[in-house]
Please model this.
Amino acid sequence: MTETASSSAGTHREVGRRTIDAGEAHTALIRRTYSASVEEVWSACTDPKRINRWFMEPAGDLRAGGNFALEGNASGSILKCEAPHLLALTWEYGDDPAAYVELRLSEAEGGGTLLELEHASVSESFLVSDPETGDWGVGVGWEMPLDFLESYLKGETPDAPTSEWFEFTPEVEKRAAERGALWAKAVEVAYARSLKGA
Model:
């Protein structure tokens, strides 16, 4: 069930709830369109030689039933890999119960690819960024690499792993703060709507 949605700069954000293996979860859904074909976006999101051009480099057995790890970040199991439309996996980070991430690709109206990324977690705090610690909420944490994915698909980033060219510049920090504010607003609206529905 979607509780709220907001759109800005081509990114649609929804906050909702769903049940996952760990229990009743909060969800963050990001929806955006890319000009590249579904097959091209799928390849960029699942080919280990391409993922690290816009995201962290995964290690492990990268197939359905396999496990992955992102050094210094998350790990998990690949639950489904149905090319070129669906990738589902668990997302294990820190001491939190395993979250669930689903990437869905479909043809967009007018051409290109509609990408939907849904992250579901039973953790209460995973949606909102914390300016005091600099921790990004999950929405911001996914939106920033999805920006890099768009730049990569357009040939605007270096043809090298992000570890060789990404820098946490003041511009990146500002963009993350702006996105964090948008997700915080979405959470506030969702909470207000849930009170009205109670």
